[in-house]
Amino acid sequence: MLRLLASLVVNLIANAVGLFVASIALSGFSINGLSFFVAVLIFTITEGVTGPLIAKIALKSAPALLGGIALVTTFVGLLVTRLFTSGLTISGLKTWLLATLIVWLCALIAQFILPLLIFRKVLKKNKQEIGRAHV
Question: What is the DSSP string of 73-116?
């Protein structure tokens, strides 16, 4: 249960980083105030639900698409978030494509780095305990 909660926290923060970077990097992408937090929640929930569904569909219909599932899931997450969040604006095809790429890439990088930063003390403690157990 603790692992699931930790994973959820990392995903929320990673998606927040991705959406924030996209809002800074793209002139056609903007999120205002409180809508940012709502957008992060909706985006994270949508990705969590649609990711496995899209993977299952791709596996049955087009196995060659399995590598691009994360990008498709990110796009669907942005689309659903845009539909349900009035403070999120994404205008133009180029912005949609770049936003998908930026949010996916930033969230991916953040998902690798955040556990090291957030759980550094826990990882260090576990490493020390494992070292003592082997002595």
Answer: HHHHHHHHHHHH-TTEEE-SHHHHHHHHHHHHHHHHHHHHHHHH
The beta strands (E) that lie in 17-92 are given as 29-31, 88-90
Nearest CA to 108 among 40, 6, 10, 25?
10
Share of the chain above pLDDT 70, in %: 84
Q: What is the pLDDT of residues 70-101, one digit of tens each?
A: 888 999 999 999 999 888 999 999 999 999 99
User: What is the structure's pLDDT at 119?
Assistant: 72
- Three-class secondary structure of residue 47 per DSSP: helix
Which of 101, 93, 95 minimizes the C-alpha distance to 73?
Answer: 101
Structure tokens at 36: 């940012």
